[in-house]
Amino acid sequence: MTRKKGGPPARPQQGTPTPGRRTIRMMVIPPPPNNTRSVIVYTGPGTVAMRGSGNVTMVCGNCGSPLLENVKTSQFRNLVVLCKNCSSFNETLI
Fold first, then answer.
1. Which residues pair with 40 in a beta bridge?
2. Is there a contact between 29 and 90 (Cβ–Cβ < 8 Å)?
3. Following DSSP, what letter does each residue of the chain receive, concatenated?
């Protein structure tokens, strides 16, 4: 990353990995029985169900679409996320 003379540091270009950030591929599971698990079903634009200010992005274990972006792993325990792109059920492993 270069710094403009007298200005703030330049932002990393899109697609450039940011130091300290991790991507975790979630585990695909069979559809859970009704009323046994908390399942996030996102119906908005894109595939990202939640964005935060953490350092981890969790992607679908089947198609690789981002589902939880810039989150803290401690926020997501024992949850299932339904991928809007491929309809796979993904479990948070942490």
1. 81
2. yes
3. --B-TTSPBPPPPTTPPPTT-EEEEPEEEPPPPTTSSEEEE--SSSS--EE-SSSEEEE-TTT--EEEEEE-GGG-SSEEEE-TTT--EEE---
Domain ranges of the chain: 22-91
The amino acid that residue 91 corresponds to is: E
Q: If 0-12 CB within 10 Å is exposed, 13-18 middle and 19+ buried, where does residue 65 land? A: middle
Q: What is the pLDDT of residues 45-56, one digit of tens each?
A: 999 999 999 999
The dihedral formed by the CA atoms of 51, 76, 23 and 49, expressed in degrees to the nearest 10:
-40
Q: What does the pLDDT look like over 22-32, one tens digit per residue? A: 999 999 999 99
Q: Which residue has the tokens 């330049």?
A: 10
What single letter denotes the amino acid at residue 79? L
What pTM value is reported for the model?
0.76
